[in-house]
Amino acid sequence: MLESLQKLVPLLVGLSVVPKLLFSLALVLLTAFLLAVIWTSPPATTTTASNNLWPQEKTFNALRRLIDRTSVTNRRVLALILEAGRGGIYAGDLAKQVAITRDEVVYRTKELASLDLIEIVELTDKNYRIGENVRELLGPSDKRVLEALLQSEEEPRVNQPSSSLPSSKQLVAEIVGPSTVVVGKRAIYRAEFEGDLEFEWHYTQPVKLTDRNVFVELGYPGQTETLTLRVKSRDGRTYSTSKMITAVASP
After folding, report:
1. Coil, helix or strand for 243?
2. pLDDT in tens, 195-222
């Protein structure tokens, strides 16, 4: 480019007055056009998707959407941690009350902590408390509001045909697996339910199905996908549950 300019300058110097004026006018018009384009261009706007979840969007609706996607067992864990108050609840006690192993408590609470729903305090044992950001968002009525959110989602969403069906035992299914996936690595998700039920997975990305297990792999940081599990009983009742999965960069 510099060489081209060096060759252009002598040519301009050798031009007569009229070509010089025309060239100068062309430069002025070009500059004015560029300035007009820059001036009238709309400012870049950053839009946030309306379906963002907590903690990316720290609003009540985002928190509600996240709890809506949380598994039944994890909601039970959250409810017990909430009931324990600011003193928290220890891993061993939590395992007994939820009727799961301590290792599963550690796994589930680690997932909840990664979503900024709870805090983990290392005392004589792992102690779990509702996250400070959640308390700040909900204010003085934090316990009552969060309790209502958890209870509103505690009942399984069962779709029944118009004919009368026995409902003595409600259908419950759960997707067990992490809410985040490292880019380029596969994560395994397991379908958990009781009884002899038909089931199927629904997912927007290609997945590898292995009985009740499904392997998920995402392509870039920030990518979010929803994994849905649907089960059906022999009497026609159905139940579905979903899990939001977010891709994160490799540490």
Report:
1. strand
2. 778 888 887 665 666 678 888 888 888 8
